[in-house]
Amino acid sequence: MLRFSFHSPNPNHPSAKTLDPSPVFRSVKTFAPATVANLGPGFDFLGCAVDGLGDVITLSVDPGVAPGKIVISSISGAPKLSHNPLRNCAGIAAIEIMRKLGVRSVGLSLSLEKGLPLGSGLGSSAASAAAAAVAVDALFGSTLTAHDLVLAGLESEAKVSGYHADNIGPAILGGFVLIRSYEPFEILPLNFPADRDLVFVLVSPDFEAPTKKMREALPAEVGMKEHIRNSSQAAALVAAVLQGDARVLGSALSSDVIVEPKRAPLIPGMAAVKVAAMEAGAFGCTISGAGPTVVAVIDGEQQGKEIGDRMVEAFLVNGGLRAKATVSKLDRVGARVISSSNQ
Ligand code: HSE
């Protein structure tokens, strides 16, 4: 099993060699996927990437920008986001990578296309940070490790969303990622077998659930009974991922007795949406990240469509919320370069 530990010395790290690298491209375009954090009992330590949804970044060398600096030249799909790179999750991650690389001689401009709604529980801030981190690294020749990229993204997450890597880890690496420890920082990618099917039904209601507010709803302490229950289900979840068992994975992610009971009442209709998903045949259902998106899992795309329709209907009838369903598979790649140019 691959593992990334904060303390592993990396002889290929650019800081061990030259600083102020030259760009190898004039511009690069990157994509980073949406992520589902927590997966029920994996609160703050487990997440996975899902395909089809995500953010795109175009990053260019710009002689009009002061050397060593970055500007955000355009943002589409999210009018509320700041163009100040110090207050934008893509900008913060990009600056962090520029700092790690020691970029001093060229200025950069970044353009962000938001494919993910803000505050939706789909790792929107992490997708922007991941796409930005990979873009800066790629522009200068892709010398950094995945671990470096995740840590840069975590800096960004800590400033805009909270100190948790269960979105940024899988947004960078793809697949399932377990955050084993924050001090020291250590993550373990978990391989869901390639010959097994896993389908996510993501239902996003027209409702805002800011992560900060949803974290404030959590208990400061938990009882021993709940601790045992959640630990055993989290362990089952990890085993199910490694065995490619969508049925056990679903029942484990459905069994959180600590976080979901506190957050579900803050999302109108959530309890009924979960019942609708299970009655329609889902293996399990819970809140995606901090919500309000609700995620159900199954092992076939056709059933996924039917389950999504039932969940959308339940949001409308029981929560008075319009919602949109997306059926996605696991994204096994994570943040990636989709094109590069020297023009
Ligand atoms: N683990 C975080 C939370 C994820 O649930 O607060 C936020 O996307």
Automatic annotation (TrEMBL):
GO MF annotation list: ATP binding; homoserine kinase activity
Its name, as the record gives it, is Homoserine kinase
Report the superkingdom from the record: Eukaryota
Give UniProt keywords alphabetically: Amino-acid biosynthesis, ATP-binding, Kinase, Nucleotide-binding, Threonine biosynthesis, Transferase
Concerning PANTHER family, the annotation shows:
HOMOSERINE KINASE, HOMOSERINE/4-DIPHOSPHOCYTIDYL-2-C-METHYL-D-ERYTHRITOL KINASE
Species of origin reads: Dioscorea cayennensis subsp. rotundata (White Guinea yam)
**Enzyme Commission code(s) on record:** 2.7.1.39
| Reaction catalyzed | L-homoserine + ATP = O-phospho-L-homoserine + ADP + H(+)
